[in-house]
């Protein structure tokens, strides 16, 4: 019986091997001839009413450019509402009116633009079934010429070059649509005298002799308290005392600092900045030089500072030079020293404007 069983196993193994080795077949699949299934083809094409009736085609075109006109009106209305319904400090009614009318204008601009584009595609653009064959993309002269022909065909099918009213109103709507955002961003700028960005960002609360204190309790920091590898979030002495006064947030936003301690031999300092640190302790602005996000993530092993908004990275060992990301310049360094009681103090204000780069900056 044992011999018969072994023979059966050998036979099964032989059959399996023969099955695997069969040409045109694989384990777990069936071999199907290429012509076994007939291609059903595309269903009969059903023309749209705009393809059959020229009057309805013109009506659809009028609907599209009317919607684009409405989008322009919505964008202009949002800008006008921003100026016609200003926000009065302490008056929540003015806030509601401002948000309501600006929101209605932006909603109309975006909704009309979207509906007009969709209606244009469904009612007026070419309505023919086609099959796009996939092929390797090559940058040869032939493929570039083909791309030009495709754009030309798309222009003819969409009617973009031929339907001037639709084209012009679409361009107008796209130009007008960002205007409310421009008007709203203007409200973020400070009002009153001395509002030049260079003047505002060139001076902070830091001055000679100002103690470095912890954020947010305002406790002064001794050099002995800063251990190797640690990072302190720092504000100027006295800022905590004006926590509830007007302008406190603006002053804090400009003056926030990150304090770190490295081994002195790890710092690659230029001659003019060797006196800006104290026994491996360095202080840099927390305001990212990209768009102003707080740079608050410190990697102890690599000595890199990371901005969480857009992943800009700065090298603390090399004056916070940019090593990755969209930031355009290093973080400004705050010159520091130690007073007679061992507390860390600022030698002066920052020597350059803090915050994002801007065209007025020297």
From TrEMBL:
InterPro entries assigned to the protein according to its UniProt record, in alphabetical order: QcrA_N (IPR045603), Rieske_2Fe-2S (IPR017941), Rieske_2Fe-2S_sf (IPR036922), Rieske_Fe-S_prot (IPR014349)
Q: One matching Pfam family, short form? A: QcrA_N
What species is given as this protein's source? Paramicrobacterium agarici
The answer to keyword Oxidoreductase applying to this record is: yes
Q: Where are the transmembrane segments?
A: 64-85, 97-118, 170-189
Q: Where is the Rieske domain?
A: 254-345
**Listed name of the protein:** Cytochrome bc1 complex Rieske iron-sulfur subunit
Annotated function: Iron-sulfur subunit of the cytochrome bc1 complex, an essential component of the respiratory electron transport chain required for ATP synthesis. The bc1 complex catalyzes the oxidation of menaquinol and the reduction of cytochrome c in the respiratory chain. The bc1 complex operates through a Q-cycle mechanism that couples electron transfer to generation of the proton gradient that drives ATP synthesis.
GO molecular function terms noted in the UniProt entry: 2 iron, 2 sulfur cluster binding; metal ion binding; monooxygenase activity; oxidoreductase activity, acting on paired donors, with incorporation or reduction of molecular oxygen
What is stated as this protein's family in its record?
Belongs to the Rieske iron-sulfur protein family.
- Show the GO cellular component annotation of the record: plasma membrane
Q: Where is this region: Disordered?
A: 35-54
Compartment list: Cell membrane
Record lineage? Bacteria, Bacillati, Actinomycetota, Actinomycetes, Micrococcales
Gene3D superfamilies in the cross-refs: Rieske [2Fe-2S] iron-sulphur domain (2.102.10.10)
**Coarse class of the protein's main subcellular location:** membrane
Give the membrane topology. Answer: Multi-pass membrane protein
Q: Which UniProt keywords apply?
A: 2Fe-2S, Cell membrane, Disulfide bond, Electron transport, Iron, Iron-sulfur, Membrane, Metal-binding, Oxidoreductase, Respiratory chain, Transmembrane, Transmembrane helix, Transport
Q: Does the keyword Electron transport apply?
A: yes
């Amino acid at each position: 019986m044992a011999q018969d069983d072994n023979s059966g196993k050998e036979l099964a193994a032989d059959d399996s091997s023969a099955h695997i080795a069969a040409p045109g077949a694989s384990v777990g699949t069936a071999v199907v001839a290429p012509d076994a299934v007939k291609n059903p083809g595309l269903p009969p094409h059903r023309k749209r009413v705009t393809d059959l009736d020229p009057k309805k085609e013109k009506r659809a075109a009028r609907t599209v450019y009317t919607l684009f006109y409405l989008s322009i009106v919505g964008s202009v209305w949002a800008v006008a509402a921003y100026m016609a319904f200003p926000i009065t400090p302490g008056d929540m009614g003015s806030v509601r009116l401002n948000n309501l009318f600006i929101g209605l204008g932006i909603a109309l601009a975006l909704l009309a633009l979207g509906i007009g584009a969709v209606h244009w595609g469904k009612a007026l653009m070419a309505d023919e079934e086609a099959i796009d064959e996939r092929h390797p993309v090559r940058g040869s002269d032939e493929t570039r010429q083909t791309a030009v022909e495709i754009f030309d065909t798309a222009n003819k099918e969409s009617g973009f070059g031929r339907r001037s009213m639709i084209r012009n109103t679409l361009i107008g709507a796209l130009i007008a649509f960002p205007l409310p955002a421009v008007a709203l961003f203007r409200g973020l700028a400070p009002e009153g005298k001395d509002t030049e960005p260079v003047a505002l960002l060139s001076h902070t609360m830091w001055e000679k002799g100002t103690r470095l204190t912890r954020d947010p309790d305002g406790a002064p920091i001794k050099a002995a308290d800063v251990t190797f590898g640690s990072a302190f979030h720092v504000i100027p002495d006295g800022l905590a005392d004006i926590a509830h006064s007007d302008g406190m947030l603006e002053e804090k936003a400009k003056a926030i600092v990150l304090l770190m301690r490295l081994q002195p031999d790890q710092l690659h300092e230029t001659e003019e900045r060797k006196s800006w640190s104290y026994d491996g302790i360095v202080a840099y602005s927390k305001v990212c030089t990209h768009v102003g996000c707080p740079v608050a993530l410190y990697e102890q092993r690599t000595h890199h500072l990371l901005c969480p908004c857009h992943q800009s990275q700065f090298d603390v060992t090399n004056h916070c030079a940019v090593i990755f990301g969209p930031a355009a310049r290093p973080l400004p360094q705050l010159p520091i020293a130690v007073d007679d009681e061992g507390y860390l103090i600022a030698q002066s204000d920052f020597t350059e404007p803090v915050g994002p780069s801007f065209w007025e900056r020297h």
